[in-house]
Amino acid sequence: xxxxxxxxxxxxxxxxxxxxxxxxxxxxxxxxxxxxxxxxxxxxxxxxxxxxxxxxxxxxxxxxxxxxxxxxxxxxxxxxxxxxxxxxxxxxxxxxxxxxxxxxxxxxxxxxxxxxxxxxxxxxxxxxxxxxxxxxxxxxxxxxxxxxxxxxxxxxxxxxxxxxxxxxxxxxxxxxxxxxxxxxxxxxxxxxxxxxxxxxxxxxxxxxxxxxxxxxxxxxxxxxxxxxxxxxxxxxxxxxxxxxxxxxxxxxxxxxxxxxxxxxxxxxxxxxxxxxxxxxxxxxxxxxxxxxxxxxxxxxxxxxxxxxxxxxxxxxxxxxxxxxxxxxxxxxxxxxxxxxxxxxxxxxxxxxxxxxxxxxxxxxxxxxxxxxxx
Length: 374
Known about the structure:
This protein is an alpha/beta fold. The protein folds into two domains: 3-271, Acetylglutamate kinase-like (Carbamate kinase); 279-372, Archaeosine Trna-guanine Transglycosylase, Chain: A, domain 4, CATH 2.30.130. The protein has helices spanning 3-6, 19-22, 31-46, 58-66, 75-98, 111-115, 117-132, 147-152, 155-166, 204-207, 219-230, 246-251, 266-277, 288-297, 338-344, 352-356, and strands at residues 12-17, 50-55, 104-109, 136-141, 170-175, 196-198, 235-240, 258-261, 280-286, 306-311, 318-322, 328-333, 370-372. The strands form two sheets. It has an eight-stranded mixed beta sheet, sandwiched between helices. Strands 10-9-11-12-13 form a five-stranded mixed beta sheet, sandwiched between helices.
């Protein structure tokens, strides 16, 4: 079965919509177009597909509301435009999704939220909880306060990081082009649409061009995003947002846009990416039962099976799990800092709230954040 034909069997997507689409190339927030995309996403949700939406457009929408024809360069002006535009953007999505009985949630992130280990776990837990409740999370960069991201960031990369974060199988980047071409179609009438290519194909960067005046991304950022998404095994589709019923057609396996293929299975690739990114900050000594569960059953690590710990680590840090003889069995992102973890060692999760004064995660390390045998 080809990758495209397998898309109807996928369960979780990240959909990113760019500024040029959302603002009709700078003419103001295109509510009619938003209504169309929301209708498509609502239909996919009815099919059982889980969706997280990454939406650009706050700065561009704010520019229109403020009557600015050109994107400003001063940081405080960009922040002001983002603050003004974000309210209208989220309100538009909320009104449209409610027509289909779907609740939305605004989630503002920056790249630091996903590189900080503690904030990574917090963001992951929140997004997964929203998905579990059937809520459509609308994610955007926190442009109002994060100056570095306004200067250098792009929502293509953020969308790829969100795909990594929630274990999405597909990242869909909707743009004002039909897909990715082997040359710039705006200047080369002989340019050919690329239907399918490996995400790590070395020739892709040479084919990519620069972004437009409204957005911060071009095809270069989309290629980089596809490579980033592929780290956790997610494929990427770059497709025209104005293509009729583009999302249902992708879900049906039609050859729409450009498919950038990840070479590895999602869970294997994600855990390899996870283990390769982080340094070990501590060690948890597990008993024989916990060692058996980790190595043979691939289950989460519970505090009840941990005998002792060493190291000074915080929530979200990478720690090693070792047996009673000191042999390393696994590594993972810990859900509790060393001080709190020490207090709950050997105890069941039902006792955590009375011991710590708050109700946290049931697992010391969740299996999704655990790499065995590394």
